[in-house]
Structures are given as C-alpha cells and as structure tokens.
Amino acid sequence: MDVTAILEIVWKVLNSPAVIAVLAGGLLWLLNKLYAAKPAWQALEGTIIAAVKWAEKEIPDDTPNKALVRLNAALNYVVKVYEEARGKPVDAQTKAELREGIQIVHAELEASGNLDKAAPTEG
Questions:
Q1: What is the value of pTM for the model shown?
Q2: For 30, 51, 62, 87, which has the most beta carbons within 10 A of its beta carbon?
Q3: What is the mean pLDDT of residues 5-19?
Q4: How far apart are CA 83 and CA 46, in angstroms?
Q5: Secondary structure, 3-state, the chain
Q6: pLDDT band at 117 (very low <50, low <70, confident <90, very high)
C-alpha cells in the first residue's frame, strides 16, 4: 500500500458523517465553554458596587492619588468578601480580574450618574 492509498482512506474516514458530527459537536462544546466562562468579578458585582460607592464617600477628594487609593480600598474590601465566600486566599489572576471589574463597574456607575457622593453637611 502506498502513501496515496493511505491518504485516500484517511480522507474518506474524515469526511464520513460520523466524524463530521463528532467534530461539529466538539466545536460547539468548546464554543459553549468559552462563552460560559465569565470573569470572577461578575459573581461579585453587587459587592463591587457597594465597595466603589463606599470608597467614593469615605476617601476625600483632596487625598493624594485619590483614584488609586479608592481603587485599593475597594479592592481590599472585595478581596475580603471573595476570600470569606470561597474559604481560601485569592490568587494573583483573580485579584487582577477583580481589580479590572472594579474599574469597569466604577466607569459604568460614573457614566450612569449613580456615583453621587453624599452632600457635605454644614455645621
């Protein structure tokens, strides 16, 4: 049997309906896994919203590097909640995802006008 005959047999097998169905099923499974994979922060979106609003109110505007300080404060709060919920320390990748989620949620809150600070009280 020569190489051409072997390639013809392989080609016929690969083009059979059963193999094509298996390949299509595998591709659909992979696409569903990729589509279903969500960042860690989406499960904690409510906690992130609360942390962002808390940091905006608690950290004054005249604080040096206020954005970084607020981000760090919100991140520390979210990480604490995440660790308590999971019962284990957060890894570096998840922490980066949570930081990104905080920034995304902050931008969404700011754009929608839902990031109002408490009015300063006079007295």
A1: 0.63
A2: 51
A3: 88
A4: 16
A5: CCHHHHHHHHHHHHCCHHHHHHHHHHHHHHHHHHHHCCCHHHHHHHHHHHHHHHHHHHCCCCCCCHHHHHHHHHHHHHHHHHHHHHCCCCCHHHHHHHHHHHHHHHHHHHHHCCCCCCCCCCC
A6: low
Q: Ramachandran region of residue 58, left (φ > 0), alpha (ψ -120 to 50) or beta?
A: alpha
How many Å separate Cα 20 from the centre of its chain? 34
Task: Give the pair of three-digit tokens for residue 99.
Answer: 């930081």
Residues 54, 74 contacting (CB under 8 angstroms): yes
State how far the Cα of 41 lies from the Cα of 104, in Å rounded to an integer: 10
**Token digits of residue 38:** 């969500």
Encode pLDDT of 59-77 as tens digits. Answer: 998 989 898 999 999 999 9
- End-to-end CA gap in the chain: 97
